[in-house]
Design a protein that fits this description.
Blueprint: E1 2-6, E2 16-19, E3 30-39, H1 41-48, E4 61-62, E5 66-74, E6 86-92, E7 98-106, H2 113-116, H3 120-133, E8 140-144, H4 149-160, E9 164-169, H5 174-179, E10 183-186, H6 191-196, E11 203-206, H7 213-220, E12 226-228, E13 240-241, H8 248-260, E14 268-272, H9 277-286, E15 292-296
Parallel strand pairs: 8-9, 8-11, 9-10, 11-12, 12-13, 14-15
Antiparallel strand pairs: 1-2, 1-4, 3-5, 3-7, 3-15, 5-6, 6-7
Helix pairs in contact: 3-4, 3-8
Length: about 300
């Protein structure tokens, strides 16, 4: 089968499309014929060799956590899913023709594989950081870098929970943020004062890693009210860096519920082939994403 792999840490050029042995579903796992794989910032951070608090990477390594596809193997002890089911979920080495998933759910009606591949890690991360930052209904949450996948999920989940969101993004994405229910403002010079004009900020999320931790602490009044998923230097300001996933099955169940009720939709900004994985990483790392990027297999 085809698989994207890297034998050394480095830039996008270390990614290679190789022939590899097919993985198989062990106990408690399923294997899918991958139809689409989500492209997440964690993918290129792992490729660069960044230490994110998860398990160590053994080289050569595959790439990718999220995927959607058709079940073609069911491991021992697995119930409630059959060969031929259309599922989306999280596993390992999902930039490939076949991948093993450790957490999955049936795809909601009307969702394409391309769309479904963009949800698993994004929704899990959004739910996790909102829980960790402790924002409550009636409060205001500031989201720095709000137009990407996680930001798109946070804005919609927050709206559903009665949380007001102030989102920062580039000028081209202001209307997009407003469409998702956020109070939108641009980053860049003067952004702190622009945020202050909208009133008190009770909690803040750094989703872009653009060097704004100090300002987020200033705006919220406490490092305990700030969580980052993108700035490894956050602990220097006593701010939590959140890099280890919580319950993916629970997040997938909530994603299915929200999508099915029309409360969550994350658009796919751009699709790539497996051979274009390096280009997908370059674009992801450049930021300014509106929604998600995915590989179509």
């Amino acid at each position: 089968m085809r698989k994207v792999s890297f034998a050394e840490f480095g830039g996008p050029d270390v990614l290679q499309l190789v022939d590899a042995e097919e993985p198989h579903a062990g106990p408690g796992r399923i294997r899918i014929a991958v139809r689409a794989a989500g492209v997440n910032p964690v993918d290129w951070r792992v490729r660069e060799g960044q230490v994110l608090g998860a398990h160590p990477v053994e080289l050569p390594s595959g790439v990718g956590l999220d995927a959607a596809g058709v079940v073609d193997e069911v491991g021992e002890g697995v119930t409630g899913v059959e060969v031929g089911d259309r599922v989306f979920g999280e596993g390992a080495d999902t930039y490939a023709d076949f991948a093993v998933l450790g957490a999955w759910a049936r795809m909601p009606e009307g969702l394409t594989f391309e769309e479904a591949a963009g949800y698993p890690s994004v929704v899990e991360t959004a739910l996790r950081v909102m829980r960790e930052v402790g924002v409550r209904p009636g409060q205001t949450l500031l989201v720095s870098g709000a137009s990407g996948g996680v930001g798109s999920a946070v804005l919609q989940i927050a709206r559903e929970r009665g949380v007001t969101v102030i989102g920062t993004a580039g000028a081209a994405n202001q209307e997009y943020l407003r469409d998702l229910g956020a109070v939108a403002t641009t980053y860049g010079e003067g952004w702190v004062e622009r945020v202050r004009r909208h009133g008190e900020v009770h909690a803040a999320l750094d989703l872009a890693g653009s060097g704004v931790i100090r300002e987020l602490v200033e705006l919220t009044g406490s490092p305990e009210r700030v969580v980052s998923i993108a700035d490894l230097g956050a602990p220097e300001f006593d701010v939590r860096f959140s890099g280890v996933a919580g319950s993916v099955p629970a997040a997938l169940a909530e994603a299915v519920d929200l999508i099915s009720r029309g409360k969550l939709h994350i658009p796919v900004e751009k699709s790539y082939s497996l051979a274009e994985a390096a280009s997908a990483h370059i674009d992801s790392q450049a930021g300014h994403t509106r929604g998600r990027r995915v590989l179509v297999i």
